[in-house]
Design a protein that fits this description.
- This protein is mainly beta.
- Helix content is 12%, strand content 57%.
- The chain has a 14-stranded antiparallel β-barrel. It has a two-stranded antiparallel ribbon with strand order 5-6.
- A hairpin with an 8-residue loop joins strand 11 (277-290) and strand 12 (299-310).
- Helix 1 (2-17) packs across helix 5.
Length: 471
């Protein structure tokens, strides 16, 4: 009878535990706004009002209108995540087709360009984890005995003997807690977001540049939330509960932008981005075992879901300063309304998760500042800094009280430091860039057992090089 009551209470929460959550949506929506060509990265991506760089298509497509020649380039990169894992990727590929004006007029239409560019928007590779040795707190197995424990996890724990009835007819943990125990929690993410932009930019009187871009985005994301406990007594009593999550799919968006060349010294830029509308396929599974009873068949749940996700609306304002032919300074502000995100399952809004998004998620502010100085006509040095504010301040109290039985790593503020150099010849150019990224995260080893987050700083490094030709 007691077990039946527990299952009925759990079924009301089980869907929330095993479907796409607001916090998963948050993880896949915080992009890296500095990834692009090496020149773009080394100046912290502050090209919104400067243009003339293919990566500006993903920020302010009016920057494509600054081009006056054909341009083709590609940018490979090396990425070192906070767990010292090294990966190789492609940050950017671009083809700019310029439509020259052979009349050499100075007023009205001057020239225009069509841009076809690929941009890496995010590398997801990161690791969060905690090891608590000789831990003397309550075990997760005690929490599984709660009425609110998801039925899939409770049934597996009962079948394995991790929990069972005592003499009073109440469910209690059978995990050996006579001594302290070791607890390990790991949260591992991988994947990427890439975007193809098809952009068109126009130059009017060498003073006003207008642009539009249509973006097609591809997202692949996977997450492993691994948890285990092992008793320190002679029996070495142990169990684990692992959650696996994967999402992949495609989305599209639209961007409009303008750059005004107020003087030869000062330029101002503005752009808006529609939300990206994703259609995503999700796969979720849970594995659990107690004292190695299911070594070959530990899976207790496997589910699939197709849903749509609407990302934040974005606006951008920027300033560019051109100091003769020797230096550039770019400053940029980006606004992302994370509270405007929405999730739908089979065309129906997920009310619980959308309420969390609307009430708990922030407006995110990103500031970029970059500079370039030409040491000689062909060689330049560059540096930059960027800051992105936190998309949320704390985890929702009503959500934390639900027995989700999984780990979470909630992204917070990010700091970037960049540097680079470049050579530019008559037709060939080559740039290199280094980017240091330091992000704060709030890590919950197990929700809801650990309601207090551990604050971590996840640091990674990115080195990129661009090879390009203009003609």
């Amino acid at each position: 009878m007691k077990k039946g009551i527990m299952i009925l209470g759990a079924m009301a929460l089980s869907f929330t535990g095993f479907s796409q959550s607001a916090y998963d949506a948050l993880s896949v929506n915080q992009l890296d706004p500095l990834l692009g060509t090496a020149r773009y990265t080394s100046m912290a991506g502050a090209f919104g009002a400067l243009g003339g760089n293919s990566s500006s298509a993903k920020d302010n497509p009016a920057g494509i209108g600054v081009y006056k020649c054909f341009d083709i380039s590609f940018t490979p990169n090396l990425y070192l995540d906070n767990d010292k894992e090294l990966s190789v990727g492609l940050n950017n590929f671009s083809l700019i087709i310029n439509f020259r004006n052979h009349e050499e007029r100075e007023k009205g239409y001057i020239t225009s360009s069509l841009g076809i560019t690929y941009s890496r928007l995010r590398n997801f590779s990161r690791y969060s984890g905690l090891n608590s040795l000789n831990y003397n707190g309550s075990s997760l197995s005690d929490a599984i005995c709660s009425v609110n424990s998801p039925d899939v996890i409770f049934n597996a724990a009962d079948d394995l003997g991790l929990v069972g009835l005592n003499g009073d007819g109440d469910y209690v943990s059978n995990f050996s807690l006579y001594d302290n125990y070791d607890k390990k929690s790991r949260f591992i993410e991988s994947g990427k977001i890439g975007q193809w932009d098809f952009s068109y930019g126009m130059n009017i009187s060498n003073r006003v540049y207008l642009g539009a871009a249509f973006g097609v985005t591809n997202l692949t994301y996977s997450q492993k939330a691994l948890y285990e406990e092992e008793s320190t007594n002679d029996s070495k009593d142990m169990f684990y509960l692992d959650n696996y999550y994967r999402a992949d799919g495609y989305g599209c968006n639209f961007k409009l932008g303008a750059i005004v060349k107020a003087t030869d010294f000062l330029r101002a830029g503005f752009a808006i981005h529609t939300p990206t509308i994703y259609t995503l396929d999700e796969e979720y599974s849970i594995e659990m075992d107690y004292n190695n009873q299911y070594p070959n068949q530990p899976e207790i749940e496997h589910s699939y879901l197709t849903y749509t996700m609407r990302t934040p609306f974005k606006m951008q304002g920027s300033l560019g300063f051109v100091i003769g032919k020797r230096a550039l300074i770019g400053a940029e502000y980006n606004y992302d309304d994370f509270s405007s995100m929405r999730i739908k399952n089979d065309g129906v809004k997920n009310e619980n998760e959308c309420d969390i998004i609307q009430n708990e998620f922030n407006k995110v502010h990103t500031m970029k500042l970059g500079a370039e100085v030409k040491v000689i006509d062909e060689f330049a040095l560059r540096a930059g800094y960027a800051y992105m504010s936190s998309p949320m301040d704390y985890i929702a109290e009503d959500w934390a009280n639900k027995f989700m039985m999984r780990s979470y790593s909630i992204p917070q503020q990010v700091h970037y430091i960049t540097a680079g150099a470049g050579y530019e010849g008559e037709h060939f150019y080559c740039d290199v860039a280094y980017m240091f990224r330091n992000q704060e995260v709030n890590y919950f080893p197990m929700v809801p057992q650990d309601e207090t987050a551990s604050i971590m700083n996840l640091k990674n490094h990115n080195i990129s090089a661009t090879l390009g030709w203009r003609f």
